Amino acid sequence: MIRAVAWDIDGTLVDSEGLHHLALVEVSARHGVRIAPDDTRFVGVAMDQVWHELAPRYPATLSNAVWMQENCAAYLHRAARLRALPGALEALAELHEAGIRQCCVSNSQRTIVDRNLQVIGAIAYLEFSISRDDVAHGKPDPAPYRLACERLALAPAEVLVAEDSDTGIAAGRAAGCRVMRVGRGDGDFAAIVAAVVRPVSAGA
Q1: Which CATH number belongs to the domain containing residue 45 in this structure?
Q2: Which of 64, 131, 139, 154 could be joined to 113 by an S-S link, Cβ 3.0–4.6 Å?
Q3: Which of 27, 61, 80 represents a domain boundary (last residue)?
Q4: For residue 49, how many other CB atoms are within 10 A of its CB?
Q5: In the sheet where 178-181 sits, what is the strand order?
Q6: Domain span at 61
Q7: 3-state secondary structure of 102
Q8: For the segment 4-50, what is each residue's pLDDT rounded down to a tens digit?
Q9: How many domains does one find in the chain?
Q10: pLDDT for 80-93, tens place per residue?
Q11: Predicted structure pTM score
Q12: Helix spans in 78-142 (H)
């Protein structure tokens, strides 16, 4: 039985992937590296992995710490424009009302995670959130979702992961959780709510 839902944030609850990419394009251009606006290689990918791929193209004087700070600042500068994806808050509210526990698991830095959840008004429905700063390895490594299960004190089979990217889906499956994709395939918000709430209701 599913007792909790672990939500990804970027591209799942909040329409932010474009803003992340815009920040990366802006910061990269500042350091002489052009990234196409329609380049999707970095969607859902942890920033340390993005750095690993792009670092050889940046000036040798640019440090990872400075690059990360610049990307974070560029993102946060525009964060007020963020909006929850249609149906996201309604799904959070319905699961909360049904007594289903919820948390968020993200590959983004803590400051970005907190800002995203604050802007869309999701914090009241969540027990906690996990950021890239909380684990040694980000998605697709299972560590973020394993940590979520530990904090929930639930077995992975009792936690449903809601994700939009292949990277996150791989992480959830590797952690042993059931996974549903948001946005295409088997996972619009109504389907996720139904998959969790209806079995609980039927067994009541």
Answers
A1: 1.10.150
A2: 131
A3: 80
A4: 16
A5: 129-130, 101-105, 4-7, 159-163, 178-181
A6: 17-80
A7: strand
A8: 999 999 989 998 888 989 999 999 999 999 999 888 888 767 788 89
A9: 2
A10: 999 999 999 999 99
A11: 0.84
A12: 88-97, 110-120
